[in-house]
C-alpha cells in the first residue's frame, strides 16, 4: 500500500527522507500474512464485490505465495503458507482460472431457527412476539418469486433495529409492513412486493 497522501504532505513541509519511498510503502493484510513467522488465517470477504480483475490479480500471489513491490523492487515471500478463506455471495461470476484453485464449501441460508439464534445474539432483549412476526414476514418476503435481490441476514438485522427505534408493534408489521425499504433495495422489488401483498391480501399474514 503506497501512502501517496503522506508523501505529498511531507514534501510540502520539507521533511527529510521524502525521497525514500520505502517510508511510504505499508504492507496490507496479505503482506502481513506472508511476513508472519506463524501460520496466519487470512480472510478475503465478499470477493464478488471487488473489481473484476481482482481475483485474477490474486492468482500469482496465491500460487507462488509471493508478490513483487515495483516501487522498492522487493519480493515478499510467505514465511509460512497462510490458510486463505475467501467468501462470495455469488452476485457475479468469478473467473474459471481462479475457481479451479479453490476448494468450495457452500453455506446454505439460515432457516428460521438458525436465524432466530442469530437475531438473539444481536438483539438479546427482543420481545418474542416481535421476533416471531419479523421471522414470519421476512421469510414470506424471501419466498416471493422474481425478486432481483432477496433480503439477507444483514437486512433483517437492520430492519429489526428500525422497527425497535420506531416503536413498531407486531400488529403494525402485519398491517402495512413499515420500513420495507430496509429489506428491499430495488424499486422493482418494492413493486413486486406490493403486487404480491395485493394478490394475497387476506390469505397471508404478513
From TrEMBL:
Instruction: Name the chain's protein.
Output: ATPase AAA-type core domain-containing protein
Native species: bioreactor metagenome
Amino acid at each position: 500500500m503506497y501512502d501517496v497522501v503522506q508523501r505529498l504532505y511531507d514534501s510540502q513541509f520539507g521533511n527529510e527522507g521524502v525521497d525514500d519511498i520505502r517510508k511510504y510503502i505499508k504492507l496490507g493484510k496479505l503482506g502481513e500474512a506472508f511476513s508472519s513467522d506463524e501460520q496466519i488465517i487470512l480472510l478475503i470477504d465478499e470477493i464478488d464485490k471487488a473489481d473484476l480483475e481482482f481475483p485474477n490479480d490474486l492468482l500469482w500471489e496465491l500460487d507462488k505465495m509471493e508478490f513483487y513491490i515495483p516501487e522498492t523492487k522487493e519480493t515478499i515471500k510467505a514465511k509460512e503458507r497462510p490458510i486463505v478463506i475467501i467468501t462470495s455471495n455469488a452476485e457475479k461470476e468469478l473467473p474459471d482460472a481462479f475457481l479451479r484453485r479453490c476448494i468450495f464449501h457452500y453455506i446454505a441460508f439460515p432457516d428460521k431457527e438458525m436465524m432466530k439464534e442469530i437475531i438473539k445474539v444481536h438483539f438479546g432483549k427482543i420481545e418474542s412476539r416481535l421476533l416471531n412476526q419479523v421471522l414470519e414476514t421476512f421469510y414470506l418476503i424471501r419466498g416471493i418469486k422474481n425478486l432481483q435481490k432477496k433480503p439477507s441476514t444483514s437486512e433483517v438485522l437492520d430492519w429489526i433495529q428500525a422497527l425497535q427505534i420506531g416503536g413498531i408493534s407486531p400488529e403494525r408489521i402485519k398491517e402495512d409492513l413499515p420500513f420495507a425499504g430496509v429489506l428491499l433495495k430495488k424499486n422493482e422489488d418494492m413493486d413486486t412486493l406490493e403486487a404480491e401483498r395485493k394478490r394475497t391480501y387476506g390469505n397471508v399474514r404478513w
